């Protein structure tokens, strides 16, 4: 059965698209027109603008396009959503916003102590991966998927924790503690290891574990998260098998595999970027004469 039966609003989320357009306009207003109001402001670079716009485009693709609807029909698409939202969109969004904008937000008295706590490397790793794993426990997953409010809240909070998780790697603030190149590499390895148990639980399960994909009543109720209820009432639907020939267990296992593949691709890319950046800085440090040697050399010239 074609997913077009759910209507234009469910397929393309026009209100969400409008929200992202307004956010993008605000971004350019702040970083170009109003940037003089920020301490330490710098010109917006083409790279930063491209990263931010890319994050908005990809965010719409996974949360506003038919992929979002398919994510409620098939578990495979749900995991594609999760992987791209937290492992691709979050770091692009983080890197796309200049450090002096982040500084303005972070330095707020009500934000700074909370931010400093949640971006501690160990805390950030445990919270993001812990919340991700808890979310995919069947009893938690099915409960959250049946509530528009809880689903939206959990998704938003998990995205905030994803930003905190990526912060120790991409922090560009001039002051404050930063991880060295080797520590960043260890951090990424640890992140990948902590995410593995949740994927393994899904991949190696012998039966479908999520009622919102296997039970027709729960599935229909969960569909209300992205399809207007009046549209669903006018349709005679029995379950996700109407839209896919893939058995539920294979759909579930494929979702876990895809999540793991996307995670590995992203983390290997991040490892390569961090390693080459660290190697470049180490080489530059070796090539430049130490400050003490320069001072001695200048002193000898004066004599």
Automatic annotation (TrEMBL):
Claim: ATP-binding is one of the keywords in the record: no
Keywords, in A-Z order: Cell membrane, Membrane, Transmembrane, Transmembrane helix
Entry's Gene Ontology cellular component terms: plasma membrane
Protein name as annotated: Cytochrome c oxidase assembly factor CtaG
Positions of transmembrane segments: 6-28, 49-67, 79-102, 114-136, 148-167, 188-211, 254-276
InterPro entries on file: Caa3-assmbl_CtaG, Caa3_assmbl_CtaG-rel
Membrane topology: Multi-pass membrane protein
Location(s) in or outside the cell: Cell membrane
Organism superkingdom: Bacteria
Organism: Bacillus aerolatus
Main location: membrane
């Amino acid at each position: 059965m074609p997913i077009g039966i759910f209507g234009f609003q469910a397929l393309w989320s026009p209100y969400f698209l409008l929200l992202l357009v307004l956010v993008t306009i605000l971004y350019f207003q702040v970083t170009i027109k109003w940037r003089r109001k920020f301490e330490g402001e710098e010109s917006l670079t083409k790279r930063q603008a491209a990263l931010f716009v890319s994050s908005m485009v990809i965010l719409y693709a996974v949360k506003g396009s038919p992929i979002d609807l398919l994510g409620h029909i098939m578990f495979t698409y749900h995991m594609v959503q999760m992987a791209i939202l937290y492992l691709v969109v979050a770091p692009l969004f983080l890197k796309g916003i200049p450090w002096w904008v982040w500084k303005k937000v972070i330095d707020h008295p009500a934000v700074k102590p909370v931010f400093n706590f949640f971006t501690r490397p160990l805390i950030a790793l445990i919270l993001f991966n812990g919340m991700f794993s808890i979310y995919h426990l069947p009893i938690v997953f099915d409960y959250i998927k049946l509530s528009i409010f809880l689903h939206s809240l959990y998704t938003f909070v998990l995205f905030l924790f994803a930003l905190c998780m990526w912060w120790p790697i991409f922090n560009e603030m001039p002051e404050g503690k930063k991880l060295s190149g080797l520590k960043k590499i260890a951090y990424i390895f640890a992140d990948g290891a902590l995410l593995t148990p949740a994927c393994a639980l899904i991949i190696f399960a012998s039966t479908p574990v999520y009622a919102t994909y296997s039970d027709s009543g729960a599935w229909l109720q969960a569909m209300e998260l992205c399809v207007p209820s009046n549209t669903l009432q006018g349709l005679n639907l029995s379950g996700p098998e109407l839209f896919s020939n893939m058995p539920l267990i294979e759909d579930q296992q494929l979702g876990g595999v895809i999540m793991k593949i996307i995670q590995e691709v992203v983390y290997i890319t991040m490892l390569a970027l961090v390693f080459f950046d660290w190697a470049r800085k180490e080489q530059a440090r070796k090539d430049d004469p130490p400050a003490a040697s320069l001072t001695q050399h200048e002193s000898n010239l004066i004599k």
